[in-house]
Amino acid sequence: MGRGMTAPGVRLPLEVRAALARLVERLQSDAAHVSGLAQAGDAPVGGHADALSAWLYASWYLALPQPDPVEPSGRWRTDLSSALRAALPSGARWLDGWVVLERRHDGQCVVARRGAARVVRPGEYVNRARPGVPAMPGDAVAVTSCLDGVDKASGFWTTRSDADLAAPLVRVHWSVPPSSLPLVVARVAVLLDALAIAYSLKTPATVDGCARIDTLVVYVSATDWPRLDAPVTTLARALGPHLRPWHPPLARPLAPGAAFAEDPGEESFGQRRCRILAGGVRELLAGAPVGAGDAIDHLARCLQAARIDPERPWLNDAG
Predict the structure, then answer these.
(1) Residue 99: inside a domain, yes or no?
(2) Cα–Cα nearest to 220, from 163, 277, 271, 274
(3) Backbone phi, then psi, for 81, in 5-degree steps?
(4) Which of 14, 143, 145, 179 has its Cβ near the most Cβ atoms within 10 Å?
(5) d(CA 302, CA 2)
(6) How far apart are CA 223 and CA 235, in angstroms?
């Protein structure tokens, strides 16, 4: 695979070298398909820069080393959103002072308070003005403090704190089997609420969407991370029995099943790394065959050329 290498090997942490070694093994095991993707051109594919980047993202970055155990039929739900919502501590907190602006035919209401507006579903509000009567415009209501919803385009269930996040952001990737997601989401939210940390998080809304290595991604402001690093690591260790022992490649492992990375902002962490590495894969395919070690070093240099430190690839571009 690729062109000959004469430069000395790149110094890499064992975890980073192992991640790139898995990529090289994946390329070698599907060489003909990868070669075809490399020649397919630069047309965007599903939010990725090109077909090769999309393949790297799906087949290397997101891929589970092994599938989750199959749950007995009927034992677990397929839609996770209601269980995730019920697990949030914010779902049990009610906020007064809201007024109904509009009631919709399906029972949803548009409510407002102090210049803020929300759409709330049945079960997320109670009529304080006329208890037991359907809320109508002008009624005072209390609403749950839980802010959540399902993004139909991506298939993710999302929630966030009432306080807004301040950029730049960092992210913690959690590898959680679907049956443990409500518990892990609850424990993470309790920790962040206790420390008064603004956050947002996302997780697949269905069991089918959990066939990926990071089933929970939590976003916080970079300025909050120094006081979160140790508590999150401690929590991840405590949650070990409920986590898969893996994390996305090139992220910094905190504990088995959890890893840290800076958020690039305009594209996802994994998409950016795969886009950069796709260029290195094309260069390897275009040259004379080399050994796995040289291929790994070449991919590391591609990260370096994109101003990503191969010794700390979880950080944003250097310089």
Answers:
(1) yes
(2) 163
(3) -60, -40
(4) 143
(5) 13
(6) 20
